[in-house]
Amino acid sequence: MNAVASMLTSLDVRTLGGGCAEAVFAAFDNLQPGEALVVVSAHPPKKLLGRLQGERPGLFEWSPLEAGPAVWRTRLDRRDAMPGARRAVNEALSWDHDRLEAILDGAFEARRSGDFGSAGARCAEFALGLRRHIRFEEQILFPAFEARAGLPRNAGPTGVMCAEHREIEALLERLDEVAAVPGQAAEILCEDLVRILGWHNQKEEGVLYPGIDRLLSEAENDAMVAGIQAS
Q1: Distance separating alpha carbons of residues 60 and 62, to the nearest angstrom
Q2: How far, CA to CA in Å, does 73 sit from each of 13, 17, 44?
Q3: What 8-state DSSP symbol labels residue 205?
Q4: Fewest CB atoms within 10 Å of the CB: 69, 91, 137, 189?
Q5: Cα 44 from chain centroid (whole Å)
Q6: 99-105: long-range contacts at Cβ-Cβ below 8 A with a sequence spacing of 24 or more?
Q7: Which is nearest to 95 in space by CA: 218, 201, 2?
Q8: Smallest Cα–Cα separation from 229: which of 121, 114, 101, 141?
């Protein structure tokens, strides 16, 4: 799995008007592999993603951090890859597992230092990312796996994953309520989440994702990753 970037800069494009995409491309092109850029915008940056996929294919990870209604923040990680490099599902989604784990770790580091406001904000990023991850798995990845493997809907490994998703979502709802509140409730929930996600992610990375990679061609895998980015 790729390490999550440690070098992070921010670019607010809300006052740049028609030149915002060029500013983002210039900032992105100055990144080294392992560095990242957070783009702050007043609207969903769908057109920006389309341009990046067309003009910088294979070079970036796309991770929403905040999704409106007033502000959108999107993280662009510079990949250590050649332009046009095709993506595989296991590599892309395992990286997202690592990213989400790092966000949750950061939230509880903030709690331990007494910064509950930052902890709440980080937990909100984690919840947004994990709910998105679950959504694109169930709407894009699992149906493709079932169709190619000849499985009924939500049967076999995808049925197990969906059942675990419901457990994870229930924990997330409870975490939303206590993430920025002093006390032990959030720590207990975090321990439960880390335990369930550890098992869950191992099964996805060890069985389901490699299965998708084998069932789809390189071009189909690459197109699926692009669809996941846009979800």
Answers
A1: 6
A2: 10, 17, 9
A3: I
A4: 69
A5: 16
A6: 99/4, 99/61, 99/63, 99/129, 100/126, 100/129, 100/130, 100/133, 101/197, 102/4, 103/129, 104/190, 104/193, 104/194
A7: 2
A8: 141
For the entire predicted model, the pTM comes to: 0.93
Terminal CA-CA length for the chain: 22
Phi, psi values for residue 63, rounded to 5°: -135, 105
* Strand ranges for the chain from DSSP E: 7-12, 35-41, 60-67, 72-78
Please name each of the domains of the chain with its CATH number: 7-78 (3.30.110.40), 89-229 (1.20.120.520)
Q: Which backbone phi and psi does 73 adopt, to 5 degrees?
A: -125, 130
Torsion of CA 10, 13, 14, 17, to 10 degrees: 170
154: which 2 tokens? 């939500």
pLDDT tens-digit series, residues 154-212: 888 999 999 999 999 999 999 999 998 898 888 899 899 999 999 999 999 999 999 99
Rounded to an integer, what distance in angstroms lies between the CA atom of residue 179 and that of residue 153?
35
**Nearest Cα residue to 93 out of 181, 203, 183:** 203
Interatomic CA distance for residues 135 and 6, integer angstroms: 27
Query: What single-letter amino acid sits at 70?
Result: A
